[in-house]
Specification:
Length: 138
């Protein structure tokens, strides 16, 4: 059963990546919102609603890692999955130590991403105290 209440939010500066992830997630039954930058996401002002963030690590302006820090500093504990075409081990370690659910190098397998999203949503439900079955896309 997919949780259609809280959206999965994709933040990536590449329009084709945003479209591809949006299609995949919607086809699996998730509500999806997309933003082209960390700033655009922050300006949306409604980030506590998100059940999961899928963040590109490297974006112009604020990086995904910057956004993770900004959210944590402001007390917003949203489960984060990082995606990157230019990551390295120290970067992945930093992200995970700061609470990321996963760190996926591009290109990644759809099933790997969907499993990470399912885990992130489970974490979000626990955080919110919801007693709802976990998401398990088929």
């Amino acid at each position: 059963m997919i949780d259609n209440q809280a959206p999965v939010v994709v933040v990536d500066d590449d329009p084709s990546v945003r479209r591809g992830l949006e299609r995949l997630l919607r086809a699996t039954g998730y509500r999806v919102e997309t933003h082209a930058s960390a700033r655009a996401f922050l300006e949306s002002g409604d980030y506590d609603r998100a059940s999961c963030l899928i963040l590109d690590v490297r974006m112009p302006g604020q990086s995904g890692l910057d956004l993770q820090r900004i959210l944590a500093d402001a007390g917003h504990d949203i489960p984060i999955i990082f995606i990157t075409g230019h990551g390295d081990i120290p970067m992945a370690v930093r992200a995970v130590k700061a609470g990321a659910v996963d760190f996926l190098p591009k290109p990644f397998d759809d099933e790997t991403l969907l499993a990470a999203v399912s885990q992130a949503i489970t974490n979000d439900r626990r955080r919110r105290g919801a007693d709802v079955p976990t998401a398990s896309p088929e």
